[in-house]
């Protein structure tokens, strides 16, 4: 049972890691109209009519969102590596538990990042631009949060199953 839960947790963790990386790296967190032209922005740059530029001003909410997303990616990577190492070296319950904790931490950090971004976007950009919406990079971040939490719960359940199951009896051949 350990390998089934840990395997499911590791698979969800890999999916969450890919989605976190894509969400963090792409420029489609928000789409809006700027002077009649289509525009979009991500954490690192903004694009108007498919011409992209780095953010020219340093705003605390972008820095906080970037930092939490990068920490989330690192934590998710650690959780996946710990989950995979449990398979490579046999049953290592401490690695499974630490992998689950790292994956839950990753989900929490990404949740903080997206909550900050959502709050500022709705309160500031929502009033500044009339025609705006969250876009696919932002949505991938929310899906990654769900997968990260599910992966962490699976890993921790695998750990609980492992410590609660009695060891198999030794059957000696005659």
From TrEMBL:
UniProt-annotated location(s): Membrane
Keywords for the protein's UniProt record, in alphabetical order: Membrane, Transmembrane, Transmembrane helix
Any GO CC annotation of this UniProt entry: plasma membrane
Stored Gene3D superfamilies: 1.20.140.150
Transmembrane domains' residue ranges: 67-88, 100-119, 139-159
PROSITE patterns: PMP22_1
Protein origin, superkingdom: Eukaryota
Matching InterPro entries: LMIP (IPR003935), PMP-22/EMP/MP20-like (IPR050579), PMP22/EMP/MP20/Claudin (IPR004031), PMP22_EMP_MP20 (IPR004032)
Pfam (any one): PMP22_Claudin
Membrane topology summary: Multi-pass membrane protein
Single GO MF annotation: structural constituent of eye lens
PANTHER family in UniProt: EPITHELIAL MEMBRANE PROTEIN-RELATED (PTHR10671), LENS INTRINSIC MEMBRANE PROTEIN 2.2 (PTHR10671:SF106)
Similarity annotation: Belongs to the PMP-22/EMP/MP20 family.
Protein name, per record: Lens fiber membrane intrinsic protein
